[in-house]
Automatic annotation (TrEMBL):
Keywords: Antiviral defense, Exonuclease, Hydrolase, Iron, Iron-sulfur, Manganese, Metal-binding, Nuclease. Its cofactor is Mg(2+); Mn(2+); [4Fe-4S] cluster; iron-sulfur cluster. The keyword Transcription regulation does not apply. Its EC number is 3.1.12.1. This is CRISPR-associated exonuclease Cas4. PANTHER family: CRISPR-ASSOCIATED EXONUCLEASE CAS4, DNA REPLICATION ATP-DEPENDENT HELICASE_NUCLEASE DNA2. It comes from Meiothermus taiwanensis. CRISPR (clustered regularly interspaced short palindromic repeat) is an adaptive immune system that provides protection against mobile genetic elements (viruses, transposable elements and conjugative plasmids). CRISPR clusters contain sequences complementary to antecedent mobile elements and target invading nucleic acids. CRISPR clusters are transcribed and processed into CRISPR RNA (crRNA).
């Protein structure tokens, strides 16, 4: 086809049918908890808590569409992103153009989710941004960075074949989730206490129901 064929693995082939765009942020939500992603996308549920409000505040300084030149690097804030091939849409907090090559930077408030899960979710979301940028600008994006507002430090993320495969797999899994008629079961683990949808999800209810049914039949 063209040079982009080397950028996109054939895990998700190009579709001849229009796809409903998935928000980039939904990939992180799904990685955290499929039920949370379904509640947001299918049920339209959303509740702010201390962590989501702090996260919104942390993004205020970057969610201003504008371009600026800093130390020879062109910087775009709140850059709209999309991929027709993968059916993604959203925006990047910051994209730096180093000698014309896009370099996405995602701002994160800190560790409010379980550490390893937070890392995975952030990397998948950032990699999805890179896939969009590759399609938009027709060139390979090899790495980006996660910027911690709390530590004021960057962590470089390399878009390895493994991370790309995990990202594409997440996109496919999220599309399958949205075709289901029932919500996925709740995680009912340590993730729940950090979730702003705890009151909506009620993860303890299914287990309580199973316990009650077991008592009725015993």
């Amino acid at each position: 086809m063209d040079e982009l064929d080397d950028v996109f693995p054939e895990i998700i082939p190009a579709s001849s049918q229009p796809q409903e765009p998935l928000p980039l942020s939904a990939l992180a939500q799904y990685t955290y908890c499929p039920r949370r992603a379904a509640l947001i996308l299918l049920e339209g549920e959303w509740e702010d808590n201390e962590f989501t409000l702090r996260g919104k505040h942390a993004h205020e300084n970057v969610d201003i569409p504008q371009g600026l030149l800093r130390e020879g690097v062109w910087v775009e804030r709140a850059l709209p992103l999309w991929s027709e091939r993968l059916g993604l849409t959203g925006r990047a907090d910051v994209v730096e153009f180093v000698e014309g090559v896009p370099y996405p930077v995602e701002y994160k408030l800190g560790q409010r989710w379980p550490r390893e899960l937070a890392r995975k979710a952030a990397e998948v979301q950032l990699c999805a941004q890179a896939l969009c940028l590759e399609e938009m600008f027709g060139q390979s994006v090899k790495e980006g960075a996660l910027f911690s507002k709390s530590s004021q430090r960057r962590r470089v993320v390399s878009f390895t074949p493994e991370l790309r495969a995990a990202t594409l797999s997440t996109i496919g899994a999220l599309r399958k989730l949205l075709q289901q008629e029932q919500l996925p079961p709740p995680a009912a683990d340590e993730r729940c206490k950090h979730c702003s949808l705890l009151g909506v999800c009620m993860p303890e209810v299914p287990q309580a129901l199973q316990t009650w049914q077991a008592r009725q039949t015993s």
